[in-house]
Amino acid sequence: MAASILKTIACATARSTLPKTFRISTFMHLKVQKRGYDQYRMRYLKEMYQKRLDVGPEKQRRRSEWINWNYDAEIYAFGQRLGEEFNESTLRQAFINRSYVEGERKKREELGIDIEAVPLQLEDNTELAEEGFALMSSYVKVYLRNIYPYMFEEGISAVHDYLTTDKMLAHIAKHVGCEDLILSEEFPVLESTLSTAFKAVIGALFNDKGQEQAERFVRDFVITQLIEKDINELWHIVNPMGLLKAMLSLNGKGEPEPRLLWKSGANTIMSLYWVGIYSDKEFIAKSPGETVLIAEEMAAREAIKRIMKTDDSRAPLIIGRAAENLMLDYNRVNISAEDIIQKFYEKSHSEKNSSTS
Amino acid sequence: MSNNAIPRDFLKNVLQNGMGRYVCQLQRITFRFCKSHPGSRHMRDFIENHMLDFTQKNPGVVVYLQPRRHRPPSIVAEFLNGRREMMEMIDKEPEEICKWTEHMRGRSGVQIVNMIRNNHTETPSTQGIWHPFMFRDSETALTKFPNPQLSAVKQTGKTATDYLLEEVEKK
């Protein structure tokens, strides 16, 4: 007890002798031997950590703001990386977004430069993107129709839409290195801007090297995104049983007849039903489900998958070197599910009318 | 401990690379060194003797040189997936710098992680996974259990009792 009182008195006297500007913490440190390098480095790091918390995260900057940046070299490397020989001026144009041109024009107006006297020699990538998109869109459809000849036209469109969304194209554009090269007003670069730039790159290739080379590019970078993707999930069929019924009836077969094959764990949360679909007592497809209705619908989907020949055991996509000599029929159009259902209704109506009259 | 701290993941392929055509995933590489300090001696040697070979072989990679006064040498690799990796080149001889440059060129840019398995697929089975009903006789679908016929012991061949009875009859 006495020792602790003595200690506090000693401390108090020591404190009173110090000038007021001294902090207690500094004073405490004076007692510790400080010869090591880590003594002040620790404090420095703590200070920097606190400062970072106060200031907030670093501002996002364009890659071109750093000193190691050479746009000419980057443009050259872009073509070389992808194994394509672009015309340099077209490739440069492919990366100029419309917002950039407008921004430049505005800047000149603010500076008081007459645009007519000193014309802004910049063309944006809108036209190239339109050309590129038209080529990509048609080639993706032609390719899919030839690879999946039995798939319905609606399914082909669904897969095509999946491949040509802004999200997918922006993803591809980022991974071939477009993001840093794009000239646009906004930053970070928007998905739509990335997608336009990628379309414009295809357009530039089409202009420089022709249709065949551009199609090869689309096949290698866009269509490969279907790998490991279940294409049957991309097309949502609203009434699979109706479509199956129409298909079977037009082929001269009997109505689809769902039968319960197996069941297990009924009235539990782990219930399982296997429903098979038969037509003229011939097995077509079967599928499991939590309830009989779900299993029946899934079995109908399975049957349509079989009809379209896109089941899980289908052959892999023909891409890469194997696709070099692919003979594609450009005028091919697959059967449309809508047509089939329409025909089926016309047929059933005429049968009804004839039976009543 | 370290096994928990190091991230674990499946094998990944960036943008299905190599399925259509192969694209080198190294986008740009920066060699940082000091022009005068002896610490950067090997890096300067590398730049004089080996760097041009690398650039000629890989026109798709943008190479930058960044002299920094009295700072240790290093290489910075930037990959197409947006990742950037810095590696110190202190005390590394030109041959070793060549090796690390090649290492960066051959990488996919994905963070180096522990592999959960050496192979990975999104479609483990094309013919459908096994389920308890797969090879079951369809007759059992309508049978009511317990069934005396199905509960009977399956007999294959002669039993010991049969054999003994036969022997007795013979005698």
For the structure shown, list the relevant keywords.
heterodimer; A: 357 residues; mainly alpha; Ribonuclease iii, N-terminal Endonuclease Domain, Chain A; Double Stranded RNA Binding Domain; 3 domains; three-stranded antiparallel beta sheet; 56% helix; extended; disordered N terminus; B: alpha/beta; Glutaredoxin; four-stranded mixed beta sheet; two-stranded parallel sheet; 6 helices
In short:
Chain A: One of its GO terms (biological process) is RNA processing. The complex is a heterodimer of chains A (357) and B (171). Chain A is mainly α and 357 residues long.
What's the arrangement of secondary structure elements?
The complex is a heterodimer of chains A (357) and B (171).
Chain A: H1 2-17, H2 24-31, H3 38-55, H4 71-82, H5 88-94, H6 98-111, H7 126-147, H8 153-163, H9 166-175, H10 191-209, H11 211-221, H12 231-234, H13 240-250, E1 257-264, E2 272-279, E3 282-289, H14 292-308, H15 337-356
Antiparallel strand pairs in A: 1-2, 2-3
Helix pairs in contact in A: 5-10, 7-8, 7-10, 7-11, 9-10, 10-11, 13-14, 13-15
Chain B: H1 2-5, E1 8-9, E2 26-33, H2 41-49, H3 51-57, E3 62-67, E4 74-79, E5 84-88, H4 94-106, E6 114-115, H5 148-151, H6 160-170
Parallel strand pairs in B: 1-6, 2-3
Antiparallel strand pairs in B: 2-4, 4-5
Describe the protein in words.
The complex is a heterodimer of chains A (357) and B (171). Chain A has helices at 2-17, 24-31, 38-55, 71-82, 88-94, 98-111, 126-147, 153-163, 166-175, 191-209, 211-221, 231-234, 240-250, 292-308, 337-356; strands at residues 257-264, 272-279, 282-289. The model of chain A is unreliable at 1-29 (pLDDT under 50). Chain A is built from 15 helices and three strands. Helices cover 56% and strands 7% of the residues of chain A. A three-stranded antiparallel sheet of chain A has the order 1-2-3, with helices on one face. Chain B is an alpha/beta fold and 171 residues long. Chain B has a domain at 3-115: Glutaredoxin (3-Layer(aba) Sandwich), CATH 3.40.30. Chain B is built from six helices and six strands, in the order αββααβββαβαα. In chain B, the strands form two sheets. In chain B, strands 3-2-4-5 form a four-stranded mixed sheet, covered by helices on one side. Chain B has a two-stranded parallel ribbon with strand order 1-6. In chain B, β4 and β5 (84-88) form a beta hairpin.
